[in-house]
């Protein structure tokens, strides 16, 4: 046995084919099959371990050339991967990375939204995806921001809302270990303070908001035509073009939770800042005004939509005095980011950014419908609605797509504009 071990050790280090001829063929064959058992393509004894996969360069260093040539059929061909981590790229990731085919941006956005709805974003157990933040930047049409622009805001120090921000940041998703492990309170303070400075500066610079029109495509199946609703043209008079209306509007309570998923999903604070600032100033400026009139409009829409799609449940909740303003305020303000788990929030936001954040109203209604039997059987539904069940983004999205078909056009138009 000692002689055999010496021969084997020398055999691995040697590059001479003459040394291989001195050993017994049976010993070499059994030894090689043992070393490569886990990599046999057709073998039934493949074992998956927790170790990282070996790269091609590592394999070349560990396997001697002579051994490879002795049994050439045992080498498994290297698999080409697009992401570099051993996972084949999805169609959605390919589209995000490669851009539109033949320069057709409109068709590419249509396909991108449908892929978000049909296949979803590939992510690990923590909800992390290497391309999700770029998908959000594309869907929201947010241009790249120079890092120096963000640093200038950070270096200005505390904004007029700094004390309010510090009073909220330590409580942001305090019970979520995933968020606490990835996002520090310091980064949250920096980003919110920079946004506060930006909003503060915009008070003296009124700007007219250009009209916008987005086609919302709710495609149920591949072979069915899309159900499309057009957003009305938005024209804002010059007297109402300020992003904020008073000092308290540069920061309102709840912005810290709304900001949290951006920081969690982004690969840098600058990306998160660009996304968050655009979102609160373009998509839902009504949510951050001092009176939060956009949030209150959204709460009334939750009650109206529930009454339309599920009249029995709505009547029961109203009879108990349970209106949306009593239980749905955090869900409307934060686009359901207040309801764990965080990976499901990110999945839901993929859908909302693809087809419009106003659909969050129907996502809240969908959560109530999924609790329908429990609520109707409870003599005190207020106790159940104190905290909504954990998010199931896939089920909520599927139900929301169905609910869109049942909402009248006038109510849907109010949903589109309620946060403006």
Automatic annotation (TrEMBL):
One of its GO terms (molecular function) is GTPase activator activity. Residues 32-84 are annotated as: Disordered. GO terms for biological process: negative regulation of septation initiation signaling. One of its GO terms (cellular component) is mitotic spindle pole body. Residues 32-47 have a biased composition (Polar residues). Pfam families: RabGAP-TBC. SUPFAM superfamilies: Ypt/Rab-GAP domain of gyp1p. Residues 126-356 form the Rab-GAP TBC domain. This is Rab-GAP TBC domain-containing protein. It comes from Penicillium oxalicum (strain 114-2 / CGMCC 5302).
